[in-house]
Structures are given as C-alpha cells and as structure tokens.
Amino acid sequence: MDLLRFDGRVAVITGAGGGLGKEYALLLAARGAKVVVNDLGSARDGVGKSNFADTVVKEIRDKGGVAVADYNSVVNGEKIIKTAIDNFGRIDILINNAGILRDKSFLKLSEQDWDLVHAVHLKGAYKTTHAAWEYFRKQNYGRIIMTSSNAGIYGNFGQTNYSAAKLGLVGFCYALALEGAKYNIKVNTIVPTAASRLTEDILPPDMFQAMKPDLIAPVVAYMSHESFDGTGHVIDSTLGYASKVHFVKSVGTPLKKKPSDPVTIESVKDFWPKVVDMNGAKHIDKIAEVSMDLADRLQVFENRAKLDGDRYTYWKDYNYDSKDLSLYALGVGASVLNPSDLKFLYESHEEFTALPTFFILAGMCMEAPLVPAAMPPGKHADFTNILHGEQYIEFVDDFPGTEGTFQVRNYVVDLLDKGSSAVGIVNSEIFQGDKLLYRTQQHIFVVGQGGFNGPRKSDNSIDVQPAPKRKPDAVVEQRTAEDQAALYRLSGDYNPLHIDPNVAVASGHTKPILHGLCSLGFSVRHVLAQFGDNSPANVKAIKARFAKPVVPGQTIVTEMWVEGKRVHFQSKLKETGNVVITGAYVDLKNVGKVRPSAVSASDSLASDAIFIKIKEEIGKNVAKAKSINGVFLYNITVNGKTVKQWTLDLKTPEVIEGVGPKADTTLTVSDADIVEIATGKLNPQAAFMKGKLKIAGNIMLAQKLGPLLKNDAKL
Ligand SMILES: CCCCCCC[C@@H](O)CC(=O)SCCNC(=O)CCNC(=O)[C@H](O)C(C)(C)COP(=O)(O)OP(=O)(O)OC[C@H]1O[C@@H](n2cnc3c(N)ncnc32)[C@H](O)[C@@H]1OP(=O)(O)O
C-alpha cells in the first residue's frame, strides 16, 4: 500500500507541546505536512508558561520536517490560524486538541472553573475553526478534528465542567459536518484515552505507560488525510484500538393505548418500561430522520387502531409472485428429486400452484410489533422471548392463485396469562378487494411474561384437537437439511433465533432452531401427498401446536389418522422421539385414495406399469416392486424362481416415502415412452425437451431403470 502523505498540506495542531498533540505534529510532519505547533505551555490547569512548542518544532526540523511554534491561546484562535497563513500561505488541517482541566466536585466548582474549561475546549475550538473556515470554504478543502472525551460521552465524577464542554464538541462536530459537506470539509471527532499531561496522575501507572499517544496519532492522521471520506464520525481510540461511538434511540412507545386516549402522568408511568427498553434501539443518522421515524411509528399506531377500537390492529398490503412460491416450497423441503413436488417449484409446470401453508405468511406480522404493543405494563415481548406457539389457517373462498396482492388485517384478539408465560392470539383476515379469501390465527408464546392477572382461556382461540388413540393410518418421514432455517427465513421470517447462534443461546436454546412454520410446512406436505391428492386447493383448514423446538438437520416423522374429512396428525423427531407438533389437523374437501404408508405408492404404481410393459417386451416374469424406506427391491423371476434381484435406491434425504408422480398422469402422458426409455430406445432428455414427457420424475426413474433392465433383458 502506498504511504499516505501530506505533502503540500499545512496543519495547525493546538496543544501540540506534548502528549497527543505532539504525536500528531511529529507524525504529520514526518509525512510531509508543514505544521504549526501551537501550545500555550501551561500546566494542565492552564496556569504557567513554558517553551514546549519550540522543543517539538526543533525535533521536527532535526528530522528534516517543516514546523513553526505558536504560543497563542486558543481563545485567540484567529492568531493561531494567522501563524499558518503568515508562514505557509494556507491551512488544510486543523486539529483542535488543546485542553485544560479544573476538576472539582460540583458543589465546589466555581463559575470561573466552569467558564475557563469551556473557554479553552469549546470556545477555543470555535475560535480556531471559525478563523480557518473561510480558507477551507474558499479552497473547497478542509479537515477538522475535534477532541472529545469519554467523560463527555458517559459523564465523569468531578468533571461536570469538562464533561459538558467535551460533549458540546460532539454536537459542534455533527452540525459543522453538515455545513461543510458541500465544500469538501470533513469534520470528525476523536475520543482518545492516552497518557498525557491531563492524565498522568489520573490513570494507574501501568495503564499510563501502555496508553501511548503514538498509538492514537495514526487514527487522527488518517482522519486528517485527503483520502478520508467520512464526516461527522466520533471515533474512540486507545491502546491501538478504535471504534465508532454514536447515539441510539429506543423503539419507544405511544403513551396511550388508542389515538383517542389522553396522555396523562399515569399513562406515562404505565408505558415507562417501554420508553426505556433498549431492545431494538437504533441509531438515527440525520435530524430529518427523527421526525420521519416518529411519523412511521405513529402511522403504525394509527393503523393499529383503525376499525377495531380497542384492539391493536394493523393493516398492510401483501404481494407475492411465483418466485415467492418456489422459494417457500424449497424452504419447506420440496425437492426436484420428488417428481410430485415439481408443481410447487417450477412456474412453467402446467399444474404450478402454491403450497397451502404458504398463505400463512401473509398473516405473519413481523414488521408491526402487535404482540409487544399489547403487553401489559411491566411485561415485554421481543425476539428474545417469543416462540411461535400455534398456527391456524382457514380458506373461505377459492384457493388463491400463483401471484397476487392481498390486503391484510392483523389484530390481537386476546392476551392470555398462562402463569409464568403469556400467549398473544393474533388474528389475520386476508382480503382481495372486498372479498375475504382466508383467515389465520397465531398463538405467540411469550416466555416468562405471564402473571399479570389476565384470562387463561379465550373464546376466540381456535384450539388444537387430540389425535385418535390408535395406530396411525400413515407415516411419512423426511429429514430437514442443516441449512433448512437459513433457506426458510428467506421467505420473510428473519427472526435471528433461527440463524444466529448467539441469539439462540441468549433465548435459552443450544443452537438456532427451525421456524415453527417450516416444520409445519413439511408435515402438511406429507399429509397433502398422502391423503389430499397432493392438491392444495383440496385443503379447507389447518391447525397445529408447536410443542417442542426442532433443530435443522433433524428428521420429521409425520403420523396421520383419517377421521372423515379431517386428517389428524402429529410430528415427531426420529432422532429423539420428541413430539414437536401436536393436536394438529388438516381439514380436506375430499379425502383422496388412502395409501399404505410403508410403500411409496405412486412411484410403485409407475414402476409397476413399467414392469408390465417390460414383461411384454422381454417375455420374462418380473415380480412386483417392493419398497422398504424408499429403496425398491425388484425380482426377476423365471418360472417362479428368482434369477436376478436388484435394488433401485430412490432414497435421498429429500425423497419422501409416499410422495411421487400421480400414477394416472404419468401413465397417460408417457406410457409407451417410458418403456422405450427404459429399454434404451428413446433419449429421455430429448423427449422431455420436445414436450413428449411432462413429468421429470419418470425420466429419472426410467434412466435409472434403463441400464438395469437392458442387462436383465439379456437373461
Ligand atoms: C411479533 C412477531 C410474531 C412472529 C412470531 C413467530 C416468529 C418465529 O420466528 C418464531 C418461531 O418460529 S419459534 C419456533 C417454533 N416454536 C417452538 O419451537 C416452540 C416449541 N414449544 C415449546 O417449546 C413449548 O411448547 C413452550 C415453551 C411454548 C411451552 O412449554 P411450557 O412452558 O412447558 O408450557 P406448558 O407448561 O406445557 O403449558 C403452559 C400453558 O401454555 C399452553 N401452551 C403450551 N404450549 C403452547 C404452545 N405451543 N402454544 C400455545 N400455548 C401453549 C398450555 O396449554 C398451558 O396452558 P393451559 O394450562 O391453560 O392449558
């Protein structure tokens, strides 16, 4: 990297007779700047005189640098700037470093102590800066450094005068940075902690030794360089470390429940914990954003109150298109390895459609803090303590299409007190124009925030239903991927609990957990494929409770029971046996053919059809395929005796038992072709491209079968 040089630049450094100022002067001079070494030469209380500046100038000159000494007080800042102009004809860099202390506890602090400290730090910086400003503006170039202090930012006992002046410099820097922006004048602030005349008997001796000013000088020099583009930054630096400091503002709260309520001293008291709750606090960059931010929050508040009086209500628009559907389907485990999933993944598929659970997303209200706002005084809800407890969706009109815009009304219907925890019940109604398409209900479990004497039950709650006490009618298992939550979150639930290990641990988990809706998406796919003809439009309603967390990578085992048009289900983890979804059901319009759960029914049917044809072609007896956990076992028999046996392993983590191409679709479309592919007479890729074959899964199956069957045909 090229050295950052200051050739041709003139720097004025106040208080440069020792400590930090001296280091700045030495470093800038060594890199080619002409330097005005200003120092009044007094002790740290501003009393006395010495010739420190000459010593520094000599050191610079001895090393071949260019410098002049200046003994004016910063209170006469214009004289210091004149020294630069008289000697070097210009000024490019101004480092306001001079300072004094008059430390006393506030009771003993005199007005003179106050004024003197302000005169040197704040007024001194004003005087030098004001004098330099006209030059900076004319030449369209300037670099200004203010010097603040941790005492100003955090306050320090016995330094009320100094703390006030030092924070004043931060405000000065922020405002001046705005005024200088269009003239290429960058104004920044250093918050140094270093060994200097100001700190020598304040810091412990060991620390005093380690806090060398020369570790801070490069930071200040960089911020003074022409390549430095930042402005309005406050940079804390010590011990060779630097960090940015800025203010943050809490999310805050309206001080009333509804817009029509008055703000009273009591309501302020009630809402105070939310006023000072710093979870989700953010930095605001510009003064204009303060009012914009407030307007946004008040808008949410107004929206919340729309239509529903006392309820916390929030209206929003929700847009989606085919890409959202495919991304969601991938997030809940659909895969091209599973031919019957293609219609959820491929927008050109002739049956392309959304999974029914996709539509739950419109009702998820991540952007408006509905449950947090509904919490009673002294209780709070945020991403560190909420868990998705239950979910319901009910389609009341036609199944929605593959793209659209909805108008969504979300509101909290009840806040339940479960003793140690709270449960917020959030209803959503999803409209297109005036038409209600469907509704959802979420139970948001707020860990540890109960005990506010609220109701335990709600008439508005759509409750889970226990599964029958008999062996399940079907079981489907599917492993989730390690990256499942990382993929699922891209559908809009960016709760860090699902990806950030630190947040997960802070919320009491050992690692990030899967979104409840992701596990639900898996299980509902299983139910749909098993009993719903794999047709989302066949679904009327879905309900589930998330009983235990799932970790990405675990295997979801969905157990199903058919009772009329209701398919009860529960989901277990294969690895632990834990039941993770309970009391769940899918209400169907029509229950499809009930398929045996142990065999991948549709794949088996497709391959059976192939075998019948193969039998005709090769004149051999081919036994029916059997499937054990997705591995097909085929027997070639001659005169009742097995002469050859082979397996076709369709099992991948993503292939689901019980889900495959619909047998009838497959066979009517490509019956003869499959045989031709299997016996190597037809190139499946070409057939697919010509649109002759529509279901890619058959191609996969035939491709795998082809070589095997060819060999078998030779028997
Ligand atoms: C603001 C923006 C909104 C966005 C929301 C969604 C954001 C998402 O990113 C968040 C997620 O996806 S989190 C992941 C999915 N959820 C989970 O993993 C939760 C799993 N469940 C559990 O751990 C426990 O059931 C647990 C901890 C929930 C409860 O266990 P326990 O404390 O042991 O409860 P228990 O003693 O059994 O019961 C106490 C009372 O609570 C009711 N209850 C239990 N589980 C519930 C649940 N899951 N949902 C709703 N209510 C539940 C019980 O019925 C009982 O009440 P009562 O005595 O009145 O019957």
From TrEMBL:
Location(s) in or outside the cell: Peroxisome
GO cellular component: peroxisome
Keywords: Fatty acid metabolism, Lipid metabolism, Lyase, Oxidoreductase, Peroxisome
Recorded metabolic or biological pathway in which this protein acts: Lipid metabolism; fatty acid beta-oxidation
Matches recorded under Gene3D superfamilies: 1.10.287.4290, Hotdog Thioesterase, NAD(P)-binding Rossmann-like Domain, SCP2 sterol-binding domain
PANTHER family tied to this protein: DEHYDROGENASES, SHORT CHAIN, SCP2 DOMAIN-CONTAINING PROTEIN
Name assigned to this protein: Ketoreductase domain-containing protein
Species name: Diatraea saccharalis (sugarcane borer)
